[in-house]
Amino acid sequence: MANINLLPWRDEYRREKQQEFLVILGVVAAVTALCVYIWISIINGAIDSQNERNNMLTQEIKALDERVKEIQKLKKRRAELLARMKVIQGLQGERPVIVRYFDELVRDVPEGVYLRTLKRTGDRIDITGVTESNVRVSAFMRNLDASEWFANPNLKSVKAAPQYGEQASEFTMSFATTKPKDDESAGSGGSKKRTGK
Question: What is the per-residue pLDDT across 55-97, written as a single tens digit (0 to 9) for each?
Fold first, then answer.
């Protein structure tokens, strides 16, 4: 029988298989590397896109914050203007009332009573004056109490003032200001029966 040596053929076959394996391994490694690169690129692209969106949102938020500040400033200015308008309207509304107070006070002061000072604080009026007799002060208080524009007269002090006459006295009084309940009484001047004139 003849001897056939198969070892070189086997070695060559083994080398071919190893080369095929190495080629396949290289291809798989290259494909894997390519897939990893593509995946990383996609992730980085998504991150960059999200960062751009975040930056855009941050800029929009800043712009909206500026607008909100401007709106708050405008609201504050509007409130200040409304408060000023309210004060002005109040003053304009009070203007004829103050005239009515002075007119009514002149009507309520009886003859023989002279006012020296008049001070208004809120709804209270403080006056000092000189009277020829204490009876005139009582008449003055009754007139104030009967008026629709004044209320609660309070005589604080009365002292003799001989420099103005034998029976003359200096007095200090306070009373509250009110408003008539209806316009008809305001239009009529709040005239009630007054004494001492």
Answer: 999 999 999 999 999 999 999 999 999 999 988 887 776 667 7
pTM: 0.47
CA angle 166, 170, 174 (to 5 degrees): 150
Burial label, 178 (beta-carbon count in 10 A; 0-12, 13-18, 19+): middle
Domains delineated in the chain = 91-183 (3.30.70.2830)
Contact assessment for residue 112 and residue 132, using Cβ atoms and an 8 Å cutoff = yes
Distances (CA, A) of 26 to 35, 36, 37, 38: 14, 15, 16, 18
* DSSP H/E element including 45: helix 7-108
Position 91, amino acid: L
Q: How does pLDDT run across 162-173, given as a tens digit for each residue?
A: 887 788 889 999
**Ramachandran class of 189: left when φ > 0, alpha when ψ lies in -120 to 50, beta otherwise:** left
